[in-house]
Design goal:
337 residues; homodimer; 2 domains; globular; 60s Ribosomal Protein L30, Chain: A; alpha+beta
Chain lengths: 337, 337
């Protein structure tokens, strides 16, 4: 009969916390059940490891009273989104968790449950971590790993003039959801039904990373990135990295029903939607002769796929309004600094 | 003539911060100059990747007024110490940096300088990162990567009865240094010369990870871990993971001259030294027939190497005083919770 792996008795409160909440999530053999100083990844021959790290902080990236399971899932998903945009398959993650004194067992229990559910759903197991006290807000820093056939990472710098610009899903929901989270009375002004309000707030609270289409991105896109700081600014970064420009038809940018209704009620919200961030969709460029097969490859995942414009030999991402006039934005991108 | 890599003009304050302070550190080709969503590591065939993450937080792991270059170096070094204890060679790191509003350019400049100096010194380049605002203390979370020939990671669980227990460097300096940092008047009570006081405080402020002996550890040790939460508790963890006990002669535990003087003045400080943490030395176990070659392999690095006791078939790490009596400790290990 096989012996269960040895799990030493936790000796300190920190070890008990890890053993109780996080060891059950560390099923990958390279995690050593979280009882060692480090974890191990053994990439199959011919693969490379994609590394990405993103932190979320209470009162900055989520609300202090957001449900703990949502906080955990958001922390993991913002990293999964980077892997998806690079065409990589999730392989695991490390988490460093800074907790204020006020956090109790119920919070931790919900946090670990949310984290475990998404680790499972996205095939991205917990490999290790660190937990520390902080005289401040909860801060969750996750480093996620993905794998790729060597040399196939989809960079930001591969866009070429004449290629089409494509985005997944819908843009702007999370930015509008954040406004609603700050001021729920806006829902009435925007003439939103209850479920539309909920849709926008959910999109802020819980990103839907597009890992289901990562493989299609890898096989078809010439450049890609995840939209986390606003479509206008992020596409601008992609253009800058590629040394190209982009011309986007703003009315082609896919909005959800809820976002369309809000923009119809307050047209200035279009700028919020295009520049607000937290979308966690993929924006990518694709040669015209690959467009149809890209679309076909994405279809089975049920992820919306919208062509919004094209890459030019200019500079900067230009968004054109209905009249073909370039739109001017107060701020193109979210920035922490 | 080779073209310089394309470096797009930073568009936001966050991008400017990254471009100015951190891009110069990201020399590894897999870092893509910090202008992509992710980095890439391509491990040579037959190697595995060792992953470790440790965070340090202001007012918890360092003092708010500690020099910024020291904060950066400590953040990297606590991670390098884990790689050293596992026998791995540093390959690079990701950093997630949470900064309060009060941080200014001078602080960032010094931080980046310290980080760059150690990245260079330890051959561990910056591969990527994330920077966010925090309504709280500075928090630096680093994930470090190392490489190893496949299957050669030195775990905590390999210790066997009859093996010798070895530690590098000296134990307890940092714990005493922390007391001095809180109350410099203790230096007089402990009869310390100025340079001894400085030595202890420096050992708290700036760990000396033992990466120079990582290869020797890999080739000789049966089990190893870095001493970060106190020798007594950490060796206890190693014993628990290995299913063995240890019998340590407390007076064999290597103390620096400064620590010896402090303990002579206040004998209860011996407990502080043995259980206080922040040593960032390596404790490991080694079969008796490998001891001499291990010692010889460590010698060129100029790192002290001290045999302090042996592994038994019992349970727990027992520390014996001069009279051979087991010592009792109030708390064996540092714990955040």
């Amino acid at each position: 009969m096989a012996m269960a792996p040895r799990e030493p008795e936790p000796q300190t409160a920190e070890e008990r916390l890890i053993a109780r909440y996080f060891r059950p999530l560390a099923k990958h053999p390279g995690a050593f059940g979280l009882i060692d100083d480090a974890a191990v990844l053994t990439p199959p021959a011919g693969t490379e490891i994609v590394l990405t790290t993103d932190a979320i902080v209470g009162s900055v990236h989520f609300f202090a009273d957001d449900p703990a399971d949502m906080v955990a899932r958001k922390a993991l998903r913002v990293n999964l989104s980077d892997l998806a945009a690079k065409g990589a398959k999730p392989a695991g993650f490390l988490m460093s968790l800074a907790l204020p004194n006020a956090i109790d067992e119920r919070w931790l229990d919900a946090f670990a449950r949310g984290l475990g559910a998404d680790a499972e759903a996205y095939g991205c197991p917990l490999l290790g971590g660190d937990s520390v006290r902080i005289p401040g807000p909860v801060a969750v820093s996750i480093t996620a790993f993905g794998t790729l056939p060597q040399g196939t990472l989809v960079r930001r710098s591969g866009a070429r003039p004449g290629e089409r610009v494509v985005v997944t899903g819908t843009i702007g929901d999370a930015a509008l959801g954040l406004l609603l989270r700050h001021d729920s009375s806006a829902a009435a002004r925007w003439k939103l039904a209850a479920r539309e309000q909920e849709h926008l707030v959910d999109r802020y609270r819980l990103p839907q990373p597009r890992n289901a289409v990562a493989e299609a991105v890898r096989l078809h896109a010439s450049a890609a990135m995840d939209v986390s700081d606003g479509l206008v600014g992020d596409l601008g970064k992609l253009c800058a990295a590629s040394g190209v420009g982009a011309e986007i038809k703003a009315d082609r940018v896919p909005l959800s029903e809820a976002a369309r209704r809000a923009v119809a009620a307050e047209p200035t919200l279009l700028e919020t939607a295009l520049t607000g961030g937290d979308d966690y969709e993929i924006v990518c460029t694709v040669a015209t002769d690959k467009l149809a097969s890209f679309r076909a490859a994405v279809a089975p995942a049920g992820v919306a796929f919208t062509e919004i414009g094209e890459i030019t030999s200019g500079t900067g991402a230009q968004f054109l309004d209905r009249n073909g006039e370039p739109m001017l934005f107060k701020q193109t991108s979210f920035s922490h600094f």
